[in-house]
Specification:
221 residues, 5-stranded parallel β-sheet, 11% strand, globular
Length: 221
């Protein structure tokens, strides 16, 4: 019997099918989600990473390159359509594997953007966000806005203002409190973040991790 089969068949473990990681830009969502999925696979579990993108970064780059400013409603509409489609596709993927799907971002991220931009939330997107996140385990990675800003600058392929980072952090923390989502300190070293994710998702401590070797990838947070 494999380790995964033994654990999934053990009532002492409550293994979710999907774990969603959210948080402001620079919180470390993508790096943590990818590393968590990779570590589970190294330990013999079935796991996959899924990015619920919206195309916001691409739209921002095109806007700067073309010297134009997309109307806020237009940008939000494009982002919402893309993100809804990727969430639907990745949720379908998650339903077809006997393991864990670690999702980077979700529909609530678009609601945070609307809130920060001062847009009305609407009716459809909040309903979809609530309906689509009933079963997944949800985590908000939280970091100080200044640290998030420094991480975004270090990527050299994106830009966010301190005002945006402060406002979006407050909104994610508000949503976490209202929905009883778990908040994890994203300023911790990556191995500690992954350890917290493993514990939350019900997986035993890693047997494959070499704790003497620092994890790479901090510059891609």
């Amino acid at each position: 019997m494999t380790q995964q089969a033994a654990i999934c068949g053990n009532p002492a473990y409550n293994i979710p099918r999907t774990l969603v990681i959210m948080g402001t830009d620079g919180a470390g969502k993508t790096t943590a989600a990818k590393e968590f999925a990779r570590e589970l696979e190294r330990d013999g579990f079935t796991a996959q990473f899924a990015a619920n993108v919206s195309g916001r970064r691409w739209l921002t780059r095109r806007s700067r390159a073309w010297g134009i400013t997309f109307p806020t409603f237009t940008q939000d509409f494009i982002e919402a359509v893309i993100r809804t489609a990727t969430v639907a596709a990745n949720s379908m993927r998650a339903s077809h594997i006997n393991g864990l799907t670690v999702m980077d971002r979700h529909l609530y991220c678009q609601l945070v953007l609307r809130s920060v931009r001062g847009q009305p939330l609407g009716l459809l997107l909040p309903w979809l966000a609530h309906a689509s996140i009933q079963k997944p385990l949800v985590v908000v990675l939280d970091v100080d806005p200044q640290e998030a800003f420094d991480r975004v600058v270090a990527r050299e392929d994106d830009f966010e203002t301190m005002d945006y980072l402060n406002a979006s952090r407050k909104e994610y923390l508000r949503l976490a409190r209202e929905n009883s989502w778990t908040i994890i300190d994203g300023s911790q070293p990556l191995p500690e973040v992954v350890t917290a994710l493993r514990s939350l998702a019900g997986y035993p401590a890693s047997q494959s991790r070499d704790r003497t070797v620092p994890y790479a990838g901090r510059d891609s947070l």
